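### Sample
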Amino acid sequence: MLLSAVAALTACSGEAPPTSQATAPPTPIARLNTDAMRLVRIEFCSLLPSSAVKTALDGRRGSGERWRSGQEVAVSGDAGSGEADAAGKDVVHENGCRWSADGYSAAAWLFADPVTTAQAREVMRAAGRQKGCTVAPGPDFGNPSQLQSCRLEDGSLRERYAGLFDDTWLTCEVQGPSGSTKSAVRSRAAAWCVQVANATNTTR
């Protein structure tokens, strides 16, 4: 079964980031003890602090949207973990969310079912075939894990981390508008993905 490398969205326009408490600076992504982490496959978006969302959006407050496993939603260009129908709809098998503002976006999703190493590697191979994208091992963000960097058709930059934590597949990404530097987008993506992983980690 080919898993999705990106989830389709169902809009909940105007949704604010879920929490507002202050948080300590996250651990650098290269120092995450991913071997000890166990991520829970739940609808996790309300666990993400608003400060993490704002940082990922380069200081902006974004509008949010969420989706959950089993929903039939409109799919985007590289979306679809279910089977799309003739109308371009897809039943997704992830729980996730996205915030957007002024050409910036931050998103994360967890596959709802257990994932094997073989399935994870199939997703990674598919990510390497996406137009305008390159892939690299990146930092330890699960095992196996991958960093995908994409220059999209509108000139925007997207940095996406994905990895297998035991049997849970996590994907998270940050996108910046045309004119953004790769180092800045990657830095925000790394910090965002640490926040997402920590929010869903049951061993903390």
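The helical segments are 50-56, 117-128, 182-200. This sample (DUF3558 domain-containing protein) is used throughout the tutorial notebook.
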